[in-house]
């Protein structure tokens, strides 16, 4: 069994299609099929169930899928440990969609100036997916938001971020001097899907104050939430880092009076996997960046 066979197998499993997987790998489709056929011959049973429009894993394929990911992650660890010089190499960084586009760009620019020969590969996904990747050794570091539930992972608090009320310029609360959470009771909310931790943050905060937000629409992108609010579909609570990059005058942002909603941003990693000097250097860069660029405590009120 060769490592390339395992890599090819994982790509087919990822795409569910030989042709698309072959394009992604850079092989011809017949060459990829032969690679999988040799793997199945060595194992003595099929790893894929060939259906007319879909390739599905067999029971043996599911077992191999988990083991192949672990094997390749260990091989990557060995290679990075041997070649580790703290200056070159690749960092596999991940984050949730409500953090990556707002927080990472200035951080990556700063790290790029300090380590110009390093490569940072960024992946954006939901918390559940990223926690699994950390556990499996497929990701070196992740920037996430609490609450988090995961065994055998380390979490370091970075900063607390305020969640700001966003509404359309025509909203009846626009001219109210102070807005309390009670003022939002029964008002329609536009939220992200249930897989996003920001939605859990908002719902938990409201429930702690004996209020249940009425969700009228769910979307997968924070920018879509902002646009739906602009169109008058409802209100929402938006991270301060997203508001800081919103130059539009078609939305109004306000801090809630009293106990303000917040979320806790954390750095996460797997202490049982090899941490290269470069990864440790990035961690220090991240800590320094947060210390030197604290989140804005006040936002413009329109």
Automatic annotation (TrEMBL):
<dbReference type="InterPro" id="IPR036388">
    <property type="entry name" value="WH-like_DNA-bd_sf"/>
</dbReference>
<dbReference type="GO" id="GO:0003700">
    <property type="term" value="F:DNA-binding transcription factor activity"/>
</dbReference>
<keyword id="KW-0805">Transcription regulation</keyword>
<dbReference type="InterPro" id="IPR000847">
    <property type="entry name" value="LysR_HTH_N"/>
</dbReference>
<dbReference type="Pfam" id="PF03466">
    <property type="entry name" value="LysR_substrate"/>
</dbReference>
<feature type="domain" description="HTH lysR-type">
    <location>
        <begin position="1"/>
        <end position="58"/>
    </location>
</feature>
<dbReference type="GO" id="GO:0032993">
    <property type="term" value="C:protein-DNA complex"/>
</dbReference>
<protein>
    <submittedName>
        <fullName>Hydrogen peroxide-inducible genes activator</fullName>
    </submittedName>
</protein>
<dbReference type="InterPro" id="IPR005119">
    <property type="entry name" value="LysR_subst-bd"/>
</dbReference>
<dbReference type="GO" id="GO:0003677">
    <property type="term" value="F:DNA binding"/>
</dbReference>
<keyword id="KW-0238">DNA-binding</keyword>
<dbReference type="InterPro" id="IPR036390">
    <property type="entry name" value="WH_DNA-bd_sf"/>
</dbReference>
<comment type="similarity">
    <text>Belongs to the LysR transcriptional regulatory family.</text>
</comment>
<dbReference type="Pfam" id="PF00126">
    <property type="entry name" value="HTH_1"/>
</dbReference>
<keyword id="KW-0804">Transcription</keyword>
């Amino acid at each position: 069994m060769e490592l390339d066979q395992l890599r090819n197998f994982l790509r087919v499993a990822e795409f569910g299609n030989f042709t698309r997987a072959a394009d992604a790998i850079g092989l011809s489709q017949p060459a990829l099929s032969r690679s999988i056929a040799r793997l199945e011959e060595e194992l003595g049973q099929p790893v894929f169930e060939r259906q007319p429009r879909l390739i599905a894993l067999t029971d043996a394929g599911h077992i191999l899928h988990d083991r192949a990911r672990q094997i390749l992650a260990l091989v990557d660890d060995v290679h990075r440990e041997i070649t580790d010089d703290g200056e070159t190499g690749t960092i596999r960084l991940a984050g949730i969609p409500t953090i990556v586009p707002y927080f990472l760009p200035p951080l990556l620019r700063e790290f790029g100036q300090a380590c110009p020969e390093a490569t940072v590969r960024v992946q954006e996904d939901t918390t559940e997916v990223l926690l699994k990747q950390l556990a499996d050794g497929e990701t070196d570091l992740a920037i996430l938001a609490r609450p988090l539930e995961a065994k055998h992972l380390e979490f370091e608090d970075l900063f607390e971020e305020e969640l700001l009320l966003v509404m359309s310029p025509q909203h009846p609360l626009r001219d109210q001097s102070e807005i309390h959470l009670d003022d939002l009771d029964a008002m329609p909310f536009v939220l992200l899907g249930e897989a996003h931790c920001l939605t859990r943050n908002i719902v938990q905060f409201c429930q702690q104050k004996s209020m249940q937000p009425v969700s009228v629409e769910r979307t997968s992108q924070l920018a879509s939430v902002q646009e739906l609010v602009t169109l008058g579909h409802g209100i929402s609570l938006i991270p301060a880092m997203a508001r800081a990059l919103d130059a539009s005058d078609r939305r109004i942002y306000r801090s809630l009076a009293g106990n303000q909603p917040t979320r806790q941003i954390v750095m996460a990693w797997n202490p049982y996997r090899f941490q290269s000097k470069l990864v440790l250097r990035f961690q220090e860069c991240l800590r320094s960046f947060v210390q030197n660029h604290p989140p804005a405590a006040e936002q413009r009120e329109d």
